[in-house]
Request: fold
Amino acid sequence: MYAAAGTPTMGHEFDHLNRVQDERADSGERTYALFNHLVGFASIGSGGIPLLGLIGAVLMWRIKAKESPFLEDHGREAVNFQFSLLAYTAMGIAFGIVTLGLGAVLWPVGAVALVALALIGQIRGAMAAHRGEYYRYPACFRFFSEPLERDRSPLG
Reply:
C-alpha cells in the first residue's frame, strides 16, 4: 500500500504528465475523491459558514479513508488544503489588525487571491481524482503528511 515515507508504492504508473496514477481506483473511488475536493466550495458559497468546506472534507475523508489508499490520499490532501486556506485567512486577518490601514488596502487583493487559489486548486484536485491520479495542492501546508497510524493495516 504505502512505503515508509507515505508515498504510493508498486502498482502505480506514470502518465504522460509524470503524475502517479492508481489503476486500481475504480470509478466509484474516483468520483468520491472528486467530490472530496469539491466539497471545499461549500466554504466559498455558504456565505455565513466559512468552515463548512473543511467540515465536509474531514467527514468525507474519515468515512472512506480505510477503503483504499487512493481515497485516503485524496481525502487527506483535501483536508490539508482546507486547513491551509483557513490558516491563510487567519494570517490575513492578523496582518490586517497589525498593519491597520495597510491591511484595509491589501485585504481585497488577498481575498481575491485566496479565492482564486481555492477555486483553481480544488478544480485541479477534482480533475486529477477523476483521472485516477494522485494530486498535491500548491501552497498547501501538510498538517497530515501520511496515513494516520490507526488507518494502517498490520499487513500493509
